[in-house]
Amino acid sequence: MESSPMDIDRDGEAIAELMRRVLFEVKRVVVGQDHFLERVMVAMLAQGHLLVEGVPGLAKTLTVKTLARTIRGSFKRIQFTPDLVPADLIGTRIWNQRTGEFATSLGPVFTNLLLADEINRAPAKVQSALLEVMQERQVTIAGQAHHVPEPFLVMATQNPIETEGTYPLPEAQVDRFMMKVVVGYPSDEEEFVIVQRVTGPEIAVGSVCSTEQLGALQRQCRRIYVDPSLIQHAVRLVAATREPARFGLADQARFVTFGASPRATIALIEGARALACLRGRRYVLPEDLTDLVPDVLRHRIVLSYEALAEGVDADALVRRIMKQLPAPEKPLESHVDLAEQA
Known about the structure:
46% of the residues lie in helices and 14% in strands. The chain is built from 15 helices and eleven strands. Helix 2 crosses helix 4 (60-70). The longest helix has 17 residues, at 262-278. Residues 1-10 have low confidence and may be disordered.
């Protein structure tokens, strides 16, 4: 039996239970990829967008399509190509000869879950068309604003092994992705199960919740308590990507051209809240924050030529920052109770 939005608003534990049911349905189809699936759920609860890097055939499309079925949401997939134009994404104005007026034809971005496949294959003018909808949840066509449905999640994929015919994503757009997740190959055991499921009978996925219930889950997530020490820790981690020398990492400063923006700090806190929700807690622990740090920061750090020459990647830099700046102590539950009563 499905939980109503009111039940979810009253009982925080219902969030973890409902999301476990959503995850159960998805994992009936998708094998393995636990880290990737958890990050997708975090992005959904925190109302963020996801950039996924992985070779073809790792169930990226299947995951989002299955997830859309479990929440009874709409799903659309756009294959990005070099000849794509902005109107192919957001829509355009079309002359109607019968009525003698222009009519607005809305594009595929008007959906709950949007999969932008091989996003780095489209030119910059198409990438810019996504900027407004990812940040403002609306598009402007002929001077008129059109809001996309709620909830709205963009999951973009890019292929790490092909560079021919691809375009680097603008920094302004990359920054709008809450997290960048790197998806790896499955283990031998997982691949065996994948072959069995794909070659066997089709699995019917059940609807677990509605988009209205998901909206209630998102609102409940914003009520999760975050200790000020954790917010301060997130600020220090992000600041260390901009000025490593200020935090005792002077030897790493030559590897960084630009650090992460304040969006990274916000994403860390919002993501940690969502992760605490998934783990059945009403407050954030340091491990909720630190688990997300690599995924939130890796795509926001612009490395120098010196870093590329020496083989230093963003993940290695983030690991050094995290080692230099250890997480604070766990907040006492009594502090959480006092904060909620205030």
